[in-house]
Amino acid sequence: MKKIVIAALFMVVSFNINGQDSFKDKAEFSGYVRGSFQGFSKNYDLSNVFAQFALKGKYTGKNTIFNAEVWFLGGHHFGEFYNRLEIMEAYAGYVSDKFDFIAGNQIVKWGRTDGFSPTDNISPRDYFFLTSDMDDQLRANLMARVKYRINNSVDIDLIAIPFYKQSNYRFDLFDMGGMASFGEETNPEFKFSNATLAGRLNFELPGAGFSFSYFRGYDPYHGFNLKGIELDFNAPNPMPLIKYSSTPYRKQSIGADFAIPAGSWIIRGEAAWNITKGGSDSLYIPLPSLAYVVALERDFGGVMGIFQYIGRYTPSFEPVFEPQPAGTDPDQVLIYMSQMVDYQTRMFNRKIFGQQKRSNHAFALTARKSFAYDTITAELTTCYNITSREFLLRPKVSWTIADNLSLAAGGHIMTGEKESLYDYSGPVMNGLFIELKASF
Amino acid sequence: MKSIKLITSTLSLVLVTSFYSFSQNPKEISKKSADAIALGSMEMTTTLKIMDAKGSTRSRTLNMASRKFGSVTKMMMKFTDPADVKGTSILIYDYDDRADEMWIYMPALKKTRRVVSNEKGKNFMGSEFTNADMSKPNIEDFNYKIISSENINGKACHVIEAVPVSDESMQSNGFSKKVSYIDKENFLCYKIEYYDLKGKLLKTQIIGDYRSVEGGSFFYYEMEMKNEQNGRRSLLKTDNFKAQSQISEAQFSPSNLDK
Predict the structure, then answer these.
(1) Of the residues A109, A419, B120, B249, which has the maximum number of CB atoms within 10 A of its CB?
(2) What is the distance in angstroms between the Cα of A206 and the nearest Cα belonging to chain B?
């Protein structure tokens, strides 16, 4: 299969070279080669080391567009060697001033804030693909997309995604007490009623940009469902093994965003009301909640600063209490164990969904400065979650050595209270990275 | 009778002086100079070369288009080279009566972002040019004074000093004054000297290879900016130019920036 794809790619490249006259100024082929290293975490000396060749092809005609990006990757990812080919994007369509219809594998980002975007539910992410650029984690979905421009300031974007694709977060790598096992994915059945539908009405008016959006489908940011408990009675000290499965849930999301320049400031904001059903009963489904972000952005003497407040309000939030053993006879112990597993699973999912309290609050600050005529950029992102008391620090320096060659170095540091998400992920994902990238 | 003659002579002198002053109005000359350049409606491909004091060169190629729709001039820039900035697009709405608006599309980001546009003095793509050099100057941002006349390449020129009207404007533009050398005959500007916030000469801009274009105006095919303090130079060379762009208004919308 790989050979066929590679052969097809070379055929496409050859076609471009031979057909350059007819495609002049319209067909573009580009890409990059990258070597990336991340290591020095508590659990892994080398957590994410890989070499990558990315090939991009794009054609824009009067009414035709196609775009493809293919990645060839080989390396070592959290203790496993791999070589793989990924079709990142591959889509084609009809385009015009008024109307676009595009079908294929596409990455779509909605929303006007950065990093924390409650209205951005379309494309999944691979949270464990660690590079110098967080946007490398975006993954495409197979979709049909229609964009209609009502006038030069207003457009409607409609999306239909037939097959659900999960985001990837590898809790199997985390040390969660040795009793939890994360394995299989549970995905919705492939049928029309499980498709995702989304729409966005976007305004770019003089002095302000804003939009209203609607999403109905399975959230790529899934939960974890309890699949079973195994007890090995032959072991000297029998301990239960709790099996979790990545399980998506259905939601509707009604969202809005805005960006308003005010002098040298720009104010951005987003909010989404997430409607879910069954959150009280099912462990992997979050409760309905309002997620919101307000951001202020300004250049302070050459330093670009972005300050963000990230909040979530869960009106139907009810605290859950740790069960206590009722007695010591075997039946009571088994009931206690079952209640305890339910409790742990619910608490774990609440951490993932940011629903540990009725109101959750976090702040983030990004500062970025370019030096030496934009050839060196230093960036620092920090985030503190007041509710869960978790802290993130991400420093990065990138240097454009030559027009087509860049070097980036930095680190990821996550820390939090015992049994917080960052406490689990820190020993695996913390570390330093260095990356060399040549573009063509 | 003598008194009448004296009054008449004085009056004539005042009238002549007033007329001369009017025709030599430095603001008017600066406006004519700005209007002489076909920046309102055009399409072009240009190469930007950035050279440091040691002579090493970086290069960027971009397609630019601008067109006036009602009271707003819309300008679009798309970078085609080198590969690391390829696909990056910038859209600017230049209003006569209010702050400009700007959007940026970066392929890696996968979305179009509205950004603050009042940083006129910021370096354009790491070059010695500023964002302000990429668009028509706002005449109302400066107070003007004719300081002398000089010959540049054999052309008689007005030497006009322009000082930002306010501290805010000075900080935004990044210079305390600029001195422009404007042809007395056709109002083309051949040279501009920029002074830093301490009043020291910062940069010299040489504008040349003017060619007349459709619509009766001119366009410069070469523009060089030299930093007098660190020796860096940037050269903007126009490879293709077409006046009177026919690109539709829809193409100048933020929702089309990613194509």
Answers:
(1) B120
(2) 8
A366 neighbors A305 (Cβ within 8 angstroms): yes
* ipTM (interface pTM): 0.85
* Residues in chain B closer than 8 A to A112 (CB atoms): 113-114
Residue B3 lies in a domain: no
pLDDT tens digits, B76-135: 999 988 888 888 999 999 887 788 889 999 888 889 999 887 666 778 888 898 877 877
Contact B253 A95 (CB under 8 A): no
Domain assignment of residue B2, yes or no? no
What lies within 8 Å, CB to CB, of A18 at 6+ separation is none
Domain count, chain B: 1
- Contact between B83 and A206 using a beta-carbon 8 Å cutoff: no
Residue numbers in B near A373 (CB within 8 A): 50, 123, 126-127, 232
Per-residue confidence (pLDDT) for residue A8, from 0 to 100: 45
Question: Are A423 and A413 in contact, with CB atoms under 8 Å apart?
Answer: no
Establish, for the pair of chains A and B, how many residue pairs have beta carbons separated by less than 8 Å. Answer: 101
Minimal Cα–Cα distance from B55 to chain A, Å?
14
Looking at chain B, which runs of residues are DSSP E strands? 42-51, 57-69, 72-81, 89-95, 101-106, 111-115, 142-152, 155-164, 177-183, 189-195, 201-212, 218-227, 233-243
pTM of the model: 0.84
Find which of B84, B96, B125, B253 to mutate to test the A interface (most A CBs within 10 Å of its CB). Answer: B84
pLDDT score for A18: 40
* Highest mean pLDDT, choosing among A18-32, A174-188, A238-252: A238-252
Q: What domain range includes position A32?
A: 2-439
Q: What is the dihedral of CA B36, B41, B47, B50, to 10 degrees?
A: 60
Q: Is residue B164 part of a domain?
A: yes
Q: What is the pLDDT of residues A71-127, one digit of tens each?
A: 999 999 998 999 999 999 999 999 999 999 999 999 999 999 998 999 999 999 999
The domain total for chain A is 1
Cβ B114–A97 below 8 Å, yes or no?
Answer: no
Whether residue B238 lies inside any domain: the answer is yes
Q: What is the CATH number of the domain that holds B248?
A: 2.50.20.10
Among B82, B111, B119, whose Cβ lies nearest the Cβ of A109? B111
What is the domain-level CATH number for residue A215? 2.40.160.10
